[in-house]
Amino acid sequence: MELGLGVAAEPDPDLLAPLAGEAEALGYVSIWSNDHYGGEGLLQLSRWAANSHTIDLCVGVLALDRHHPSEIADRIEELGLPRTRLVLGIGAGFDSHPLASVRSGVEELRRLLPGTRLAVAAMGPKMCRLAGEVGDAVLLNWVTPEGAPRAREAVLQGARAVGKETTQIIGYVRVAAGEGAQERLSAEAAMYTRLPHYARHFEAIGVDPSTIGVVVEDPATLPAQLAAYRALDVAVVRVLSDRSMESVLVVARAAIGKDAQV
Question: How is domain 2-255 classified at the CATH fold level?
Answer without folding.
Answer: TIM Barrel (3.20.20)
